[in-house]
Every structure is written in C-alpha cells, then in structure tokens.
Amino acid sequence: MAYIDKAVRHSGSVTKAEWCGMGVRTRAWLLLGGCAGAFLGIGGPAQAAPAVERSGPAAPATAPVPRADLSFHGNAVMDGDRVEVRLTPQDHGPAAVPEASVRLRWSVPPAGAQTLPEGCARTGERTVVCGTGALAAGGAGRQIRLAVRLRAPASEVTLEVETAWNGGVADPDRTNDRLRVLVLATGDEYWF
Q1: Which of 13, 14, 56, 167 could crosslink 97 through cysteines, CB 3.0-4.6 Å?
Q2: pLDDT digit string (tens) for 118-154?
Q3: pTM of the model
Q4: Triad 122, 84, 186: Cα angle to 5°
Q5: β pairing state of 189-191 and 144-149
Q6: Contact 142, 119 (CB under 8 A)
C-alpha cells in the first residue's frame, strides 16, 4: 500500500527504484490504471482514416457469377416395393450450366443393394445423387431414369427432388428446383 501512496503522491510518475520495489500485484494495478487513463483520454467520436492513394495497376475486377434458373420435371410411379422416377433437368437461362447434379431423397429407405444408372450414386441411407450433364441455356438436359426397391413395401412414399450442385452458377429462383412429391402405391404416375 505504501508503494501506491508514493506513486499517487508523485502525480502518477514512479521512479525506476520505486517500480522495482513494488510487488507484482501493485505494478499490475498501476499499469491497468495507466492504460485505462490513456484509453479514456483518447475519447471522442471515432474517425475514419484518410484514404490512401495507391500507385500501380488497379486490382483486376472479379467476373460476375453467371446466372441460370434450373428446374426439374418428371414423374414417379410406385408399385409394391418398387419406385421408378423419370426426370428431366431444364436450364431456363440466361447462362449455360457446365454440369449440375440432382438429389433424390425417399421417406422410406431403399433396400441395401441397388443397381443405379451411370452417373448416379447413393450418398446416404435414403439419398441418391445423379449428374445432369451439361445444360444449354434455354434447353432441357438428358432424361434421368432411376428405379429403386424399397426396404419394405409401403402404401406411400414422399420423394424430395432438389439441386445438389449447380455447376457454379447463381440460381435466383430456387422454388422450381426443390420439390416434394407424394407417391401412392397405386401404379399411377405422379407428375411434378
């Protein structure tokens, strides 16, 4: 306490001898007090730093991300424990899509062993992802045909269809590439 009194009496200045003779805790409090005073002394509203003029070539502008509106249309049929899906990807433009993929997810899990078409892979217990190939702006891609056996017969299944990857383009309208279709085990085609 005597060291703090000496420091206060010296109007905030402490000699090297007094500093070395103080305990660690006392020195910490003095440093905190000094830092707080310096911080509070700055005060006032924050001001922006002046702009610095750079010399040399300007940074290259980034290319805008191409935009394309993807959608999926098709149908699903369920008969017993088998569900067959046919869908066609479409690119409504304005840019072409070099490659995309579509995710199909069933509410009832497919059986373990499945033979999937080329370009399709199982990515989870209930999920399959299929590549679309290149999609021309304003055009339709190749039709994807996929048939799966369910693990157990069901009276209905919900099929979710959505874009898994859009080839690096921006899609401003995601409402037409995320679908949920209820398919009843009637053998009828359910269109989406």
Answers
A1: 167
A2: 999 999 999 999 999 999 999 999 999 999 999 999 9
A3: 0.67
A4: 135
A5: unpaired
A6: no
